[in-house]
Every structure is written in structure tokens, then in C-alpha cells.
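User: Good morning. I'm curious how nicotinamide-adenine-dinucleotide would be positioned relative to this chain. Could you predict the structure with it bound?
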Amino acid sequence: MANPSVLVSGSCGLIGSEVATYFARQGFRIVGIDSNHRAVFFGPEGDTSWTRERLLRDIPGYRHEPLDIRNREGLRSLMREVRPNLIIHTAAQPSHDRAAEIPFLDFEVNAVGTLNMLEAAREFCPEAPFIHMSTNKVYGDRPNTIALRELESRWDYADPAYAHGIPEDFSIDQSKHSIFGVSKVAGDVMVQEYGRYHGMPTCCLRGGCLTGPNHSGVELHGFLSYLIKCNVDAREYRIYGYKGKQVRDNIHSEDVARFMFEFWKAPRVAEVYNLGGGKQNACSILEAFEITQAVTGKPMRSKYVDENRIGDHICYYSDLRKMQVHYPAWRITKPLRAIFEEIAESWLERLANRRSGRTGACG
Ligand SMILES: NC(=O)c1ccc[n+]([C@@H]2O[C@H](COP(=O)([O-])OP(=O)(O)OC[C@H]3O[C@@H](n4cnc5c(N)ncnc54)[C@H](O)[C@@H]3O)[C@@H](O)[C@H]2O)c1
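Assistant: Good morning! Here's the predicted structure, ligand included:
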């Protein structure tokens, strides 16, 4: 196929921009959709205009559509015109904590917006692989019911059944999800259904902590990016509960894009994968402080708030074995320390530019 096209929703976000850049390097024509709703959700600190400018500058032929995925007719006419060979859906209201204040907007974007994308794809390009960014929050707080052991700087699973992390057949039912978790469950199950019911090659990637130097981390979304930003900018970081020993698995956005490329080469129907850094890239907040300080040489300022975020996982890391069986060519290429270094370098540069007034809003 000569120059296949990919439609990327949320193309100015962390994952969307990485995907656009990565697939352009693989010879794809890129059509990006982004309405800059991140600035609506998080204010000026979440503004992604700087990323749109970067994509327009760096990707030859990049086409940007400032379309809102809630606009069903707009999506239909774009899908009819482009008929992409691949669809990667990353547009979302991504914050667990923010959703409770904006429940209608959250659901309209995450659940109905996903249905709009699926239905337009079914109508005009049902054979195109449809890759959806889901989240580990679909498991609600059920991972917190697994027996844990407390180590010096982190929690870990005490139950040997989870020695490799959380697998895809873990229940998503009857637990507290947060309003965000529910809108994402709706999108996730609908994407699976367009596979099972309509036979489309769909895939849900239930992300752990997806991160990288392009993240516009804010307190309510983008844990590692925000933590490192606080360090380089000498801001105070607030730890919410669990003694700061809560564990997250971190994956570089480029490794996410690399997995999507493998799926494109050998698509399957109605698949679900837990996509995080896995055990090897997991760390607690306390451990993240240590690594950040070692990387930047700056002290971490923090405040402990003795109340955890509602539904927050105490320990979560993804079991990557299913992905590795289905796609043996894929693996994590960016270890934890390298991720920290790239993020720190990016924040140092962005904050220096901001102080000298050289770029647009980037937080
Ligand atoms: N970053 C993480 O740690 C993480 C973890 C698990 C899952 N995910 C999932 O991955 C996906 C991408 O996350 P991200 O971190 O890149 O988020 P992001 O906020 O960086 O990117 C999302 C992009 O979508 C755009 N957008 C939002 N609503 C839109 C709308 N109605 N129409 C068009 N564009 C819209 C935003 O402006 C933003 O640029 C989301 O589905 C998120 O739930 C992310």
C-alpha cells in the first residue's frame, strides 16, 4: 500500500502527537483532529497549541482539523472524505479527578465521542484497524482488594497470582471507578463491541501511566511529567495518601506508538491489552522523588496530604505478557531512568523558553 493514511484524534495530546510523529516517520499521511479541549479541561497550563504548531512545522503534509469529536456530522464528513487506512483514537477528557466537576462534558467526550468515531469508521472505512486508548481506571479500585505487602519505599502485591502485574481478564465490574473511569468503561466496551458485533479490527489499550517529554503535565493529570515539572520549577508537589508509596507503571509514549504500529501490521478483532511500563518500569512516588533528584540535582519540595484521591490505585502495574505473546517483536525500549531524563530535559527547556518569552503557552 503506497502511503497509507492514519486519522489521529487528540493529535495535540501526549499520545496523539507522539503517534502522529511516529507514523509520519513510517511513511503515513497524517490527519490530526484536536479541538484543544485540554485547555478547556485544565486551563492555560493544559493548552496544546504549541504542539499543533510543532506538528505543522515538523511533519510534511500534516493536516490539522480543529474538530470536536462530539460533532457527529463533522466527523462523518471528514471520515467520508479521508477514508483512512488506520484510526488511532486518543482524544479524551483524561483526568480521573476533573471528571466529577464536569460529568456531562466528560461522558460526552469519552463515551459518546468514542461512539461517534466508531460509527463514522463503520460507515466509511470498516476495514481500517481502530485503536482506542483506554485506561487502567476501567478496573476501578478493584486492584486495591489484592493483598499487598509494604516495603520500605513502595507497596507491592503479596498475592503471587499478580507477580507479573494485572492481566486483561481482571474484573472491571462492581468497584468504584470515578466518573472518569465509567465514561472510559463505556468507550472501552463499545470499541470491543464494534469488533465482536460488527467484525471490525478494533483494539483497546488500557494504559498505565503514559508519559514522555511531550506531556503538558498538570496536577490533575500526568503524574510523572507534573512531578518532574515541580522539581525543575521548585514548586511544591502534593502527595495524596498511601504514605507516598503508591506504585505506578510508566511507559514512554514512543513505546505506545511502537505497539500501535505492530497492531497495524497484524490487526486482530476486539482485542484488549494492558499497556503500561510493567513491573520493570514501575515506581512509587517516593522512588520517583529519588530518581528525579538524582537526574536534576535539585531537591524535591513536597507536602503530604493524608487523604488519598478517590478510587486511586495503591499499587498498579500491567501484566505485559499477553501483548508479548501476540506481538513478540514489541518490547519496552525506554527504561525508567531514560524516561525521567527526557522529561526533565524537556521541562528545563520549556521553562527556560517561557521565562525568555520564546514560546506559546506550554505550562
Ligand atoms: N497519559 C496517561 O497517563 C494515560 C493513562 C491511561 C490512559 N490514557 C488515555 O490515553 C488517551 C490520551 O491521553 P493523553 O495523556 O495523550 O491525553 P492528552 O490530554 O494529552 O491528549 C488528549 C487530546 O485530546 C484533545 N481533545 C479532548 N477532547 C477533545 C474533543 N472533544 N475533540 C477533539 N479533541 C479533543 C485534547 O485537546 C488533547 O490534546 C486518553 O484516552 C487517556 O484516557 C492516558
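Residues 233 and 351 are 8 Å apart (CA to CA). Residues 10, 12-16, 33-38, 48, 68-70, 90-92, 94, 109, 113, 133, 135, 207, 209-210, 222 surround nicotinamide-adenine-dinucleotide (CB under 6 Å).
Let me know if you'd like a different ligand tried.
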